[in-house]
Design a protein that fits this description.
- It is a single chain.
- The chain has 2 helices and no strands.
- It is mostly helical.
- It has one domain.
- It has helices at about 5-40, 50-65.
Length: about 70
């Protein structure tokens, strides 16, 4: 393939990767905003350590396997 075709493909790939990165960032921001809102947390009082602790607690909750209620 000519170099220009490869360069164009590389440019498109970089744009696509940036769109994916931007999309992930928007989801992370919306998720964080919803958690803070639903928990009635105050942005001003959240330290990095508190954010990490909350994230760990939420992750642990989400990763719990449902209790097996079958006999």
């Amino acid at each position: 393939m000519p170099q220009t075709v490869l360069e164009k493909q590389e440019g498109k790939l970089k744009q696509l990767n940036q769109k994916i990165k931007d999309g992930k960032s928007k989801i992370e921001q919306r998720l964080g905003k919803q958690i803070i809102s639903q928990a009635n947390l105050d942005y001003a009082n959240l330290s990095n350590d508190q954010i990490k602790l909350l994230a760990k607690q939420i992750a642990n909750f989400l990763n719990q396997k449902p209790a097996d209620h079958q006999s």
